[in-house]
Amino acid sequence: MNETVLIPTLYALTAALLFGLSTPMNKLLLNTIEPLVLSGFLYLGSGLGILSYRLIKEKSLSIQTEAPLQRGEVPQLITAIITGGMVAPFILLYSIQITPASTASLLLSFEGIATTLLAGIWFKEYIGKRVWLALAMVTLATMLLSLQQNQEWGFSIGAFGVIVACFLWGLDNNLTRNLSARDPLLLVIIKGCGAGSFSLFLAFSLNMPFPSFQMILTAMAIGLVSYGLSIVFFILSLRSFGSSRTMALYGIAPFAGSFLSFFILGERPQPVFYFSFPLILVATLILLTETHSHQHLHQAFSHDHRHSHKDGHHTHFHPESFQKKDFVHSHLHDHEEIVHDHQHLPDLHHRHQHKK
């Protein structure tokens, strides 16, 4: 396995593990905090926590290592915040109140499929058969994990709302992929503070009780780790892997949550966990062994993103002191037109069209 595949894979798995940690931790807090209030402080904690880290980090850097957000990209970021951080959680919150728990849990696993459908149809990302197979296995495993006996089943307007929320998150994921060349810390700061402020304002408007200061700090600390850091790694994976592959790997989050719940809450995994988890392992192996190679054209263009000069795509000139191939930096640079053939993923330089 080469570095091109391994690193984004580790990013996606780390993001899933960190987000999975929120399941047992949030379960402890939900005994005393309203779900909407908790969601607000989780998001706000992610934004403010990453902001603090970024301010400290900038003081120690002598060069720019990540690209800033461009003015023309602001509408995409705002749309991502509104759809994924505001509207989707709001729809989900009220949909699950009129939907059987088992139905809602199963339908939430639809986010991966929604993301992939939007990626392939609307955002024109290349999705091969192995990716579809891996995604199907992850979705099946997640549905099995959320399956509970002796619960009411049914499809209603509430269930439809859950599906709508999944598609809104899918749109958020793909818009975030489009922005993945930009500083992930900045994206998390804006998304976290924006979504968190909206949720808390809504909770305040609905006269929901707010917890103690100590509980608020606890929720924000969990948000920093399980939302802030998780989204940073998620964006880094999107940058190299694209939406569909990242979401397939990110699908292990419920399993990470179940596994961590055993150590934190003492909850033993259900028997179905041991049947569905191997599906996740096989799906991950399918993605890790995926190869995609053909002759393709890189048109001449200019852009700004984090890069080094060891990948064969960045051959522009630098002063002698900058010539190290592993020197990571960010600036506006040109790419000349080139046609070549090599293994690649749908990263920043390989989002070209494919013949059907």
Major sheet characteristics: 2 strands, antiparallel
List unreliable stretches of 5+ residues. none
Shape: globular
Average pLDDT rating: 81
Beta content comes to 5-15%
- The oligomeric state of the chains shown is single chain
If helices are DSSP runs of H or I spanning 4 or more residues, what is the number of helices? 11
Span of the ends, CA to CA: 27 Å
Descriptive account of the structure:
It is a single chain. The protein has two domains: 291 residues, no CATH class; 37 residues, no CATH class. 40% of the residues are buried. It has 356 residues and is mostly helical. The strands form two sheets. A two-stranded antiparallel ribbon has the order 1-4. It has a two-stranded antiparallel sheet with strand order 2-3. Helix 2 packs antiparallel against helix 8, helix 3 runs antiparallel to helix 7 and helix 4 packs parallel to helix 7. The longest helix has 38 residues. The protein has eleven helices and four strands; from the N terminus they run αααααααααααββββ. The mean pLDDT is 81.
List keywords for this structure.
356 residues, mainly alpha, two-stranded antiparallel sheet, two-stranded antiparallel ribbon
List the helices and strands and how they pair.
Elements: H1 3-29, H2 35-60, H3 74-95, H4 101-108, H5 111-121, H6 129-146, H7 157-178, H8 184-205, H9 213-250, H10 253-264, H11 271-288, E1 293-298, E2 301-307, E3 329-335, E4 338-343
Antiparallel strand pairs: 1-4, 2-3
Helix pairs in contact: 1-9, 1-10, 2-8, 2-9, 3-7, 3-8, 4-6, 4-7, 5-7, 5-9, 6-9, 6-11, 7-9, 8-9
